[in-house]
Write a structure and sequence with these properties.
- This protein has 13 helices and no strands.
- By secondary structure, the protein is mostly helical.
- It has one domain (11-314).
- Helix 12 (267-278) packs antiparallel against helix 13.
- The longest helix is centred in the middle third of the chain and has 30 residues, at 113-142.
- The protein is globular, with a radius of gyration of 22 Å.
- 43% of the residues are buried.
């Protein structure tokens, strides 16, 4: 049954991508778009590569910051696992890359994979919050209306639900009926242990310092994405304002939340053409620079992910993974912790979830 559901999701994604590509073909003169793409200026493409690379690096740093309350994971490990996850997203449906990278980092470090997945959930919420904020400011500055503005409003509503979900996950043990659920889960100790580790990962969101750094790094990474779109547009002779580039960067990436074929083929391009039309950019040129951004991102992350898989990297030394001194994250909920403890010293959240 799970296999059938997986095939169903994959088929749905491919169908949505096919429809999106058909809509792009109907609305854009492909011959003109190809000619525009062929005339792309190499100097701007080099800048595009630089900005995409900087974006990926900042995301790896952000993930390391989010993991810090659990373990001191080296940047090389978070970067490698992040790229492996991107490679998986490029070739697998349903954003399975998020699960793949949590597994990969768990194998590299020995940190609980469920706890790592919890930090990825927090990362996704922070990312969505920042990108929706960027899109909201852009539609206000550009006075954009219609389907694009409506999509951003939906994004705001979804973001609010995600924030509430994170808060509920962190405070799950205090919610009504929590004791009854815990007793029910006692029948499956491994499931309960995995959920506990997942909550450990979600609890990084309770650290103001960690979240402030994560938001700042998210703003930095999305700034790189905006500049990447601006560079790609300049490469094909379009001179977008920063507001237009910001709306294109935010809108196309929000479109990747829609189920699609691996690599978000079709939905990314349709979003770019639709948004470009709303701000007065020629559809053929919009498709040309959207393909440039998309192809550059797919190629760089795929090469990086394949390299990380081939090189491996081996297991990170346990002592190097000790978390910073401070409140224990493995303490019982509600317990008062201080810098001095009478039991084992604070330790990283390790395996136990397979």
């Amino acid at each position: 049954m799970p296999r059938v559901r997986g095939l169903g999701r994959a088929a749905l994604g491919i169908a949505i991508s096919a429809v999106a590509l058909a809509l792009v073909v109907r609305s854009v003169d492909l011959a003109t778009a190809w000619e525009v793409l062929r005339g792309a200026q190499p100097a701007w493409i080099v800048l595009l590569v630089v900005f995409v690379s900087a974006d990926v690096l900042m995301r790896a740093v952000r993930w390391r910051v989010l993991l810090m309350p659990l373990a001191r994971v080296p940047l090389r490990a978070t970067l490698a696992s992040l790229l492996v996850g991107y490679l998986a997203n490029n070739v697998l449906p349903a954003r399975l890359g998020e699960v793949v990278r949590s597994h990969d980092l768990g194998e590299r470090t020995g940190v609980s994979k469920a706890a790592i997945l919890g930090t990825i959930v927090v990362e996704r919420v922070v990312d969505t919050l920042v990108v929706v904020s960027i899109a909201s400011v852009a539609i206000l500055v550009l006075s954009v209306r219609g389907v694009v503005a409506s999509a951003v409003l939906v994004g705001l509503a979804v973001t609010a639900l995600l924030v509430v979900g994170i808060a509920a996950g962190i405070a799950a043990h205090r919610l009504p009926g929590a004791a009854r659920v815990a007793g029910f889960l006692d029948r499956w100790p491994r499931v309960r242990a995995a959920l506990t580790r997942l909550r450990d990962g979600l609890r990084v969101a309770s650290s103001v310092r960690v979240m402030a750094a994560a938001v700042a790094l998210s703003v930095g990474s999305w700034s790189c994405t905006v500049l990447a779109f601006a560079a790609a547009a300049q490469a094909v002779g379009v001179e977008p304002t920063m507001g237009q580039a910001a709306l294109l960067a935010a809108g196309t990436n929000l479109a990747t939340a829609i189920p699609a074929a691996p690599g978000y083929v079709g939905t990314f391009e349709l979003a770019a053409v639709t948004i470009a039309g709303s701000v007065g950019i020629d559809p053929a040129s919009a498709l040309a620079f959207a393909v440039l951004v998309h192809a550059t991102t797919l190629v760089l992350t795929s090469i990086g992910g394949a390299t990380a898989l081939v090189l491996g990297g081996g297991r990170v030394d346990n002592e190097a993974l000790e978390p910073p001194t401070g409140p224990r994250h493995d303490a019982e909920p509600g317990a008062v912790t201080t810098g001095t403890t009478t039991g084992p010293s604070p330790s990283r959240v390790t395996g136990g979830d397979g």
